[in-house]
Amino acid sequence: MEKIDTVIRFLKNAKSVLFITGAGVSADSGLPTYRGVSGLYNDKVTAEGIPIESALAGEMLHRRPEVTWKYLAEIERRCRRARPNRAHEVIAAFENEFQRVWVLTQNIDGFHHAAGSHCVIDIHGDFHNIACMRCSWRHRVNNYAGLKIPPRCPACQAVVRPEVVFFGEMLPEKKVAVLYRELRRGFDVVFSIGTTSVFPYIQQPVFLAKQAGWRTVEINPSGTEVSGIVDVAWRAGAAVALDALWKKWQQQK
Questions:
Q1: Which terminal CB of the chain, N or C, has fewer other CB atoms within 10 Å?
Q2: What is the pLDDT of residues 17-47, one digit of tens each?
Q3: What domain range is 99 assigned to?
Q4: Measured between alpha carbons, how far is 101 from 69 in angstroms, rounded to an integer?
Q5: How far is CA 126 from CA 14, 110, 164, in A?
Q6: Do 104 and 192 reside in the same domain of the chain?
Q7: CA-based nearest residue to 18, from 165, 125, 123, 119
Q8: Separation of alpha carbons 224 and 20, rounded Å
């Protein structure tokens, strides 16, 4: 396989690697991609007559939290039995192979941490972390099964929210700062895996890599916004490709 051999060559000369991951990485765990989540609503609107994007917007959370939490709970219930898959495991294992490995993920499932990755920028948050919208109360939950809808803070009775970025909200400043700090340090290889790269902050590291002369690899079943500029465009699912890459890497060591 010519592409996998090229990627192995990139990695042999690398000391630092950035993995950018999207919903396609968690798809093999049984989680729907974003469009799959939207596909839960085949009529294009929710029972309230609004698009799912509106139901999961920050403005709706503040105005009608029961609506937002209704669909959060439904999505979480669909995802509850899922676990990290081989893609997450391989990315975590690569931390021990190089001096510096970071993961920039759009996913809110927490699977990279669960698989053992330590340097993770979960730019959209983690829906297992919930926080009060009024006071400093925070808590981590394994699932939403025991929560009332909408759940309220035990300290002040205000509505709580998952610590994720809803539609219409800004990215968390601290996580953005970490991302730009690491990009300034540079990477030898940048992977874009399981993402269509439609968000500018997901595209940017790949474009920056191209300008800086860092090696770039895309793993995705179909073409994306960055396919035309990467050094290697590997058309495959995340778990299959990363498992093959790991096995080849072990053979070549």
A1: C
A2: 999 999 999 988 988 665 444 445 455 678 8
A3: 2-31+84-124+170-252
A4: 35
A5: 30, 6, 6
A6: yes
A7: 119
A8: 13
Pick from 238, 236, 232, 223: nearest CA to 5 = 232
The catalytic position among 112, 113, 124, 128 is 124
- Amino acid, single-letter form, for residue 116: G
Tokens of 129: 């972390």
Structure tokens at 58: 């920050």
Does residue 156 contact residue 134 with C-beta atoms inside 8 Å? yes
- Name which of 189, 171, 183 is nearest 231 in CA terms: 189
Q: CA 72 to CA 161: how far, in whole Å?
A: 10
Give the mean pLDDT of the chain: 93
Average pLDDT of the residues in 47-69: 92
Q: How far is CA 17 from CA 112, 120, 123, 192, 239, in A?
A: 15, 12, 18, 11, 18
pTM of the complete model: 0.93
Rounded Cα gap, residues 229 and 210, in angstroms? 7
Give the residue from 139, 164, 189 where a domain finishes.
Answer: 164
Q: Encoding tokens for residue 10?
A: 């990139």
- Provide the pLDDT for residue 81: 87
Determine the longest span between alpha carbons in the chain, in angstroms: 60
Is there a catalytic annotation at residue 113?
Answer: no
The proportion of the chain whose per-residue pLDDT surpasses 90, expressed as a percent, equals 84
Same domain, residue pair 103 and 211: yes
Alpha carbon distance 62, 168 (integer Å)? 12
Q: Identify the bridge partners of residue 18 per DSSP, sorted by sequence position.
A: 102, 190
Alpha carbon 182 to its chain centroid, in Å, reads 17
Who has greater pLDDT, 113 or 78? 113
